[in-house]
Amino acid sequence: MNQQTAASFFFTFGPGHAFNGRVRIRRAILVLTFAAIPLIAQTPAYRAPRTPDGKPDLNGIWQALNEANYDIELHMARPALATRPGPYGPVPAAQVLALGAVGAVPPGPGVVEGGELPYKPEALAQRKQNRENWLAADPEIKCYLPGVPRATYMPYPFQIFQSNQAIFIAYEYAGAVRNIYLKDPGRPPVDSWMGQSAGHWEGETLVVDVTGFNDQTWFDRAGNFHSDALHIVERYTRTGPDVIQYEATIDDPKVFTRPWKMSMPLYRRQEKNAQLMDFKCAEFVEELIYGKFRKTPLK
Length: 299
Known about the structure:
This protein has 299 residues and is an alpha+beta fold. The chain has helices at residues 3-11, 21-41, 121-132, 134-137, 150-153, 286-290; strands at 60-64, 83-84, 91-92, 158-162, 166-171, 177-181, 196-202, 205-211, 231-240, 243-251, 260-268. It is built from 6 helices and 11 strands. β9 and β10 form a beta hairpin. The radius of gyration is 26 Å and the shape is globular. The termini are far apart.
């Protein structure tokens, strides 16, 4: 029913009709609502700009805007990532006490679809231990490579370089990089922090199969972890001029009872001088890792 028909139908319920005024108004609202449905349904889906070979163009500098690096699950604000028992509840651990609000954990709605992570009981105990030893255990603190998918939603930009033969992703944090092969490279020659990525296109979506991980990275600062059996399938879909919808399906039978998925939007950096800056953080942790070997360690 088009809008002209809807208007005609509305005016048939004039003052002389048997229906009272209230019924006429309700029917008019109902008719106009249904008349608008075809207009909404006709809105075309977004079609991304194309590269010379006709594929959706993912080139650009992108960044996630969420709290997933603190904790990929739903979480409330906390006084610190490392805490100790206090007289009225947890208080910051001695090592982070002076950070005050800077060291606090902001709340976040989470990015895990369906709620809690499906940990096996023994793996859940390991996560608890990770949280209790966060200062010594989180690989981010030591500037280790962040792994996948954590590199995507750390609070730093990353840049996608796309050609018709390969896709390369450079991350600002720790100088991490990934080469996404568009032809099957075979089995990963060795396990690594960032794994081996092989991609293909499904319509508007770049699908990336990532395997060959070691067990040295975490999903976040909350101790969520994986084993060397980790297998990830990522999906990158342009949904607007400056938005990529990102999904990652995680399968790790050693740690989880079933596969699970996280999703989030990624936003294009808009600054005219947007670029990746150097943040090779290894030199910032030399004292943390090797300082104990000084003749006179710093205090």
